[in-house]
Amino acid sequence: MDHLVLTVEDIDRTVDFYRDVLGMMPAPFNDAEGGERMALTFGEQKINLHQAGAEYEPRAIKAAPGTADLCFLTEVPLETWVEHFDRHGLSLVDGPVARSGATGPLTSVYIRDPDGNLIEVSVRS
Predict the structure, then answer these.
(1) How distant is the alpha carbon of residue 82 from its chain centre?
(2) By the 8 A CB rule, do 62 and 37 touch?
(3) Model pLDDT for residues 48-94, shown as the tens digit of each residue
(4) Same structural domain for residues 44 and 78?
(5) Containing domain of residue 118, as a range?
(6) Which one of 64, 84, 109 terminates a domain?
(7) Do 82 and 45 share a structural domain?
(8) 118-124/69-73 β-pairing
């Protein structure tokens, strides 16, 4: 996957969360029309951010904050993530629980981002 798009209520708040909690890097970029946009990078992928009510075209038909369910793989033990989330005042939605991933079994924990998107952090089991 190259990138995905999240529609968010507040781009700055989203950048702060994904940078501070998940370790992603803010990555401003210029679109094909020369306008400045914001993305978050991790590895070779990125998440482009759309401001709710001012989405870029083309876009999803029902683009809205809080409609995503994202899973991120990690090699860091989940116990370390749970402690990290706790330091940031985040409660687990679920986990650790067994799940099925694209390439096999996972063990996952779940939190929510500022817009209510479900964020799954998983290790391969």
Answers:
(1) 16
(2) no
(3) 999 999 988 899 999 999 999 999 999 999 999 999 999 999 999 99
(4) no
(5) 68-125
(6) 64
(7) no
(8) parallel
Please give the mean pLDDT across all residues of the chain: 96
Domain count, the chain: 2
∠ CA 74-60-46, rounded to 5°? 30
**Token duo for residue 113:** 């981002």
pLDDT tens, residue by residue, 12-61: 999 999 999 999 999 999 987 788 999 999 999 999 999 999 988 899 99
Residues designated catalytic: 120
Q: Which amino acid is at 105?
A: P
Q: Say which CATH number the domain at 40 has.
A: 3.10.180.10
Domain boundary among 64, 86, 115: 64
Residues 31 and 76 in one domain: no
Scored b (16 or more CB within 10 A) or e, 86-98 reads: eeeebebeebbee
Tell me how far apart the terminal alpha carbons of the chain are, to the nearest angstrom: 22
- Amino acid identity of residue 122, one-letter, is S
Count of residues making up the chain: 125
